[in-house]
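COMPLEX REQUEST
Ligand: NAP
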Amino acid sequence: MPSTTATLPSGEAVPVLGQGTWMMGEDRGRAADEVAALRLGLDLGVTLIDTAEMYGNGGAEKVVGEAIAGRRDEVFLVSKVLPSNASRNGVVRACEASLKRMRTDRIDLYLLHWRGGVPLAETIAVFEELRHSGKIRHWGVSNFDADDMEEMERLPAGKNAQANQVLYNLGRRGIEFDLAPWCRDHGVPIMAYSPVEQGALADDAGLQAIAARHDATAAQLALAWIMARPGVIAIPKATRLEHVRQNAAARDIRLTPQDLAELDTLFPPPARKRPLEMI
Ligand code: NAP
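STATUS: Structure written out below.
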């Protein structure tokens, strides 16, 4: 039976299904619906929320702040700092601003959104300071390929990274060649972003046929496939309440060996190294 949690290197268990927030917070007219979607997800036990200072230029974090008001302790809150803010002073300022927008005193997992020009050692050092002061509980990275992970691991405190958030779904399996094995060997969970390829996998006829055997939708099957992989967390974004309900229900789908074999035929795993893809 697939696990409903993934274990961080710290030993803490986090849910294998979360809620993404990219494209939220861009239009105040849609904010109430977005808050309602996130709150419904929380009601259904989808308690990991992924956001970033970048989304909606801070707007998504404000939506998250509204959604978690009065129920902060239920939530495992993930946010990200932009590489342009990854210097010592930049991270401190960005973190304070994120906390303020989300109206909370701590971020559970704070990620470097992608690698930029600031030396990684400088960013990690300030992540560690923020962790010791309690503003963040854990830190990690995003869009890091296997060579980035190796480089980080050699830095002071580099081994304290708790996750790597990367593009991963049935149609984007490149990380299975080297990054996913690296993360598995080092006990670092992968957070799979765009797990339904921004909605496109929902329309895949091959997936729909397999999903029909489970009385499920193609998007649900795509999520079930990710969640069945040990140490991988899926963070679909859904604003429609029907999608939120379907995504939560995908946790109950049990893929058979036949399903998995057919999925490997439809969406073959990589035969050679491919550079990490990003959206
Ligand atoms: P996604 O989750 O693969 O797809 C979101 C789209 O799929 C939305 O249009 C949504 O529609 C639709 N959808 C959701 N559930 C569905 C379902 N059950 N059936 C049919 N359609 C469904 O794409 P994403 O937003 O790019 O990725 C997810 C999250 O990962 C982001 O929101 C963000 O938090 C994170 N992310 C991180 C990075 C990074 O660089 N670290 C990059 C990209 C994304 P509705 O909204 O209309 O319900």
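REMARKS: The pocket of NAP is lined by residues 20-22, 50, 113, 142-143, 165, 193-199, 202, 217, 219, 235-240, 243, 246-247, 279 (CB under 6 Å). The mean pLDDT is 97.
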